[in-house]
Write a structure and sequence with these properties.
Shape: globular
Radius of gyration: 19 Å
Strand content: under 5%
Number of helices: 11
CATH class of the largest domain: Mainly Alpha
Number of strands: 0
CATH topology of the largest domain: ABC transporter involved in vitamin B12 uptake, BtuC
Helix content: over 70%
Distance between the termini: 19 Å
Length: about 250
């Protein structure tokens, strides 16, 4: 998903972001839409190549192949339109320094309905956690629910990435931190994870502004270092106990 995110953002910036005729709202809308389309297309392309989610190894290999090919396509776009290189670098590092109230409004308008729908789909997530056969025996429409979840994930992720850039590992670390503190259903886990993600991002942003003050580190670099280290430690600890990360 992230590779197609980058390609879609590069195309959006190349078509709108460097055009003197493009209004600011049009650029914002176009880049946000490109990120959303890229997120959906990335997931669907990986699932098509992997022929579903039943084989973990095939899914992993498909994701790697899609990432490599799309990263090469993104590099071709930046070579063809060098003016987008600086903007793409800002997106790659991730930063909250250029997020204004307009961006906050866009993210809030999208996040609140997505959280409400994710809450409503909590029963489906509870069923999937028990295994596909068990979920099917409970009468859950797995195919349509998967598509709804992919659309929700792509919309929320695409809008956030379009406003702040790629801020890595917050979405992965937050649910594990919540699970380590409290045992709850997926409906509540979704909301608590969103709140935990916001708290982690705020703490990382304050730390990024303080570490090398008066300069500011890109917050995405800090979350990648800290979040990646936490997940590696968590994976090592759970593997030692005979369990998996998820």
């Amino acid at each position: 998903m992230r590779a197609l995110h980058r390609l879609a953002l590069a195309l959006g910036l190349a078509l709108l972001g460097v055009s003197p005729l493009a209004a600011e709202w049009l650029v914002r809308l176009g880049v946000t839409g490109a990120a959303f389309v890229g997120a959906v297309a990335g997931v669907l392309l990986t699932l098509v190549l992997a022929r579903g989610v039943h084989h973990s190894l095939r899914l992993l290999l498909a994701g790697v192949i899609v990432g490599v090919v799309l990263s090469a396509a993104r590099e071709l776009v930046t070579l063809a339109v060098p003016d987008v290189l600086q903007a793409m670098q800002a997106y790659m590092l991730g930063s909250t320094g250029f997020v204004g109230w307009g961006s906050c409004a866009v993210m809030a308008v999208v996040a609140l309905p997505c959280l409400a729908l994710a809450w409503a789909l909590g029963r489906v997530l509870d069923g999937l956690a028990l295994g596909e056969s068990t979920a099917a025996s409970l009468g859950l429409p797995l195919a349509s629910m998967r598509m709804a979840l992919v659309a929700l994930l792509a919309l929320a992720t695409g809008v956030a990435v379009a406003q702040t850039g790629l801020i890595a590992f917050v979405g992965l670390a937050a649910p594990h931190l919540v699970r380590s503190l409290i045992k709850t259903t997926h409906s509540k886990l979704v909301v608590l994870s969103a709140l935990m993600g916001g708290l982690l991002l705020m703490a990382a942003d304050v730390l990024a502004r303080w570490l090398v003050a008066p300069q500011e580190l890109p917050v995405g670099v800090l979350t990648a270092a800290l979040g990646g280290s936490y997940l590696l430690w968590l994976m090592h600890r759970r593997t030692g106990r005979g369990g998996g990360l998820l």
